[in-house]
Write a structure and sequence with these properties.
Layout: H1 3-11, H2 19-29, H3 33-48
Length: 49
């Protein structure tokens, strides 16, 4: 499974990506994994509020 279809499954909660897949997504988005996880942390904090 690749690209958009994997991203769609992750977004709708039907797939939980492995760390290696997260790294591939970051590479495709041209962002560092640390930036990706920072964005995740921001969203998590919003949900807790």
């Amino acid at each position: 499974m690749r690209g958009r279809s994997l991203l769609h499954l992750i977004v709708v909660g039907r797939n939980e990506p492995s760390v290696s897949k997260i790294f591939e997504l970051c590479d495709g988005l041209n962002i560092k994994p640390s930036s990706f996880f920072h964005l995740i942390e921001i969203e998590y904090d919003k949900l807790k509020s």
